[in-house]
Structure formats: structure tokens, C-alpha cells
Amino acid sequence: MDVGGYFLAAADALPRRLTALRAVIGAMLALASVSACAPTLRVSDFAELPGDVAREPVLTVSARAPTHDATLFGRERAETLSYGVHTVSVPPDREPGRIRYPRGTPDPMRHFTLAFAETLHGEEAFLGALNRKLSQLDEEERILVVFVHGYNETFGSGLFRFAQMMHDFEIPGVPLYFAWPSAGDPRYYAYDLDSVFISRDGLASTLRLASRAQADRIMIIAHSMGSMLTLETLRDLSEAGDSAVLNRIGQVALMSPDVSVDVFRSQLATIGDASDIDFIVFTSTRDRALQASAALRGQTDRLGSLRSIEEVSDLRLTVVDVSGFDTADPLRHSTLTMSPELIALFAGTRDFGVEAAPRAGAVRGPLSLSINVVRQATEIILAPAAAAAGAIEGTGARQQ
Question: What is the dihedral of CA 62, 58, 242, 190, to 10 degrees?
């Protein structure tokens, strides 16, 4: 053995290792600041709400252990699911995408509040509540919208974000919130990841129950680490041959998914063989949280920070790139839900308006887009019109 050569090689590699170590430490610090305020919220139980305040009742399924106080659910994992209806109040004067949390006495004219809470005892009571909500809608709007929150969320913060989305995007249908036991603390990324795998059976049971409701179809919206939970659950359902559930799911929207591209490909290989689900992935190359997650794993990108459509061109899906937009989120991990411009674009549209792709280079209000079709994948690049005008001039959809 060339001992001298070994030590020379080791010394030469040391700067590279230090650089890698610095990258990992930086990634850990960035993750520690992700959504640093995930508040624990309490039920306000107002006698009534002011007339100008909007109400967003949300049906909830929680895999978190109850706290038996006004916070309702904590970070601990439960052995059984809990069911309920929780009404979030939305103040009248606010910028779309923004949530102002109460820090003292909640004021529904200024804050989002957890206004009312009702416990539903068992699956049948929950199914009855679902069907009553669906029966109040026009037939074309009888959609179940299932939301699976991401990393570092409390029960209340995920509920508020879902209510904000339903309100601002004017999403038709009945909202169903699946609350898995995230620690709600940025230090416990590994705890949350373990909770994802523990919660697969709970989400599968929820989707089976939802498939029995009198809805035309089910739409799933998942954020960040919730995308991993959603995909793993769909993979389990596919392997079990549970077509009764899978056939009811029309679309799955993955927002900033914290998932490896290779893992996603393996999941879709199973899911795609058993279903016709349409997948739409919202990405941003400026997502600092996903950059940190990728660095911790020795990767360049996560699915939600995809840099090239070529990486998934063999998969049947739509990728919507929103890298061009800024929001109040310094980590740009919630661009879609917090950008007033994107909310204005998608508000009132079905399935985020991408089922029937608009023509390439089209402009709607202050926004512009370009479309690339690469084998089976479709890429839609959205940008503020002023910034994108030069980039898309003279271009159109590209078929490759």
C-alpha cells in the first residue's frame, strides 16, 4: 500500500470535505428556520362572528393524539383517528396569501381564528357530515378536496393554511384536512419524516372513507413533506389493488414536494399502473427549504426544485414552474399559496386551471407563460409578464 500517496490524497480531499460539511451545516441551519413560527392555536368559541368575517368550515381527520384542551391536538402520534368539523374565520381586509395569527386575544376582524370546533364520533358520523356538505353544492362542484400539510406544522397552522387556500383560490368542493403528527418544530425534521411513514395507514383509511362519500371525485393537495406521505399512501393503495379508491381520485397537486426525483419515479411506476390520476407538480428553483433538504441528502435537487423537465420527461405529469415569483416567505417554500399574483391567476379555476393548458406565450393580466411538451411531460413556466416578455418573445410550445 502506498501510505504516502494515501495521505496525500486524503489531504487533497480535505478542502472538498470541508466544503461539503459547510454545505450540510448551512442546510441544517436553513431547515431550522423553515416556517419558524408554527403556532399552537386554541379554539376561540365565539358566540357569534361579525357579519364581514368569512367562515371556512373544514372537515378534519387527525392522526395526532388529542390534548383534551383548547389546542385540540398536539405532536404525539395517535393509535386511532379523530374526526371533526373546524370552522376558521377569515378577516375581511387582508392581502391574499397572508395569514395574521392572533398573539393575544383573537380579533376576527384582524386575525385568522379557530372560531368553532365540533367532534364527530366515528366514521359513519363523519361520512354523514361529508354527504350533507356535498348535498348543498351544485352537482358539478361536488368534489372532495383533501389537504395533506407539510413539515413543521401544528394542527392549527395547517388548518389555517388550508382555509386560506380554499378562501383565496375559491376552490370548489368540500374541504377535508388530514392532520398527521408533525412536531410543529423546525428542529425535528427526522421526527416528522418518521411520522410520515407511520401515517400512511391513517391517510389510506381516510381516502377509503372519502371514496364512499357522494362526491363526483376526489382531489388531493399536498405540501412539502406531505407529498411524500401522499405518494407513499397512493403506492400502498395501488399495490393492494384498491381500485375503488384510486378510481375516485382525479388529480393530485404536489406543492413544493420534498421528495427525491428517483423516489418519485419509483412511486409513479406503481401508482401509474393502477390508476389514471393526473399529477401536477408546482416547483421553484429558488426554494431555499428544498435546497437545504437536497444538500442534507447529497443531492442537487428535490422534486419541488426541479431544474430540468428532462429529468421527468418519461412520466405523464404537468410541472408548473413558479420560480419567477416572490412572496413574504423568505424561504420561498410556499410560493403558490402566498403569492397574490398566482392567487389572482388561479382563483376560481378548476384543478388550478391546468387541465386544459392555455396556448404557449399567453398572457393573463400581469402574468405570462410558456409551455414545453417533452415526451410525456408538460412544463408550464409562469412569470410576471414584464420579467418574462423578453424571454418568451418569438417562442411557443416546443414538442420534443
Answer: -40
Residue at 311 is within a domain: no
Whether the predicted pLDDT of 284 surpasses 80: yes
C-beta of residue 278 within 8 angstroms of C-beta of residue 247: no
Contacts of 230 (CB under 8 A, 6+ apart): 148, 203, 220, 222, 252, 254
Strand blocks (E) in 292-395: 318-321, 363-364, 367-374, 377-384
Indicate the pTM of the whole model: 0.86
pLDDT tens-digit map of 53-79: 999 999 999 999 999 887 899 999 999
List, as one string, the DSSP characters of 178-220: EE----SSTT-HHHHHHHHHHTHHHHHHHHHHHHTSS-SEEEE
- Comparing CA positions, the residue from 212, 139, 141 lying closest to residue 175 is 141
Domain ranges, residue 93 = 3-301
Per-residue CA distances from 246 to 42, 62, 160, 353, 364 (Å): 35, 21, 28, 22, 34
User: Max CA-CA distance within the chain?
Assistant: 82
Q: Considering the domain boundaries, does residue 339 fall inside one?
A: no
**Is 177 part of a structural domain of the chain?**
yes
Q: Is 253 helix (H, G, I), strand (E, B) or coil?
A: strand
pLDDT band per the 50, 70, 90 thresholds, residue 385 = low
What is the per-residue pLDDT across 10-40, written as a single tens digit (0 to 9) for each?
345 445 444 444 544 454 455 555 445 567 7
CB 292 within 8 A of CB 28: yes
Name residue, grid cell 420579467: 387
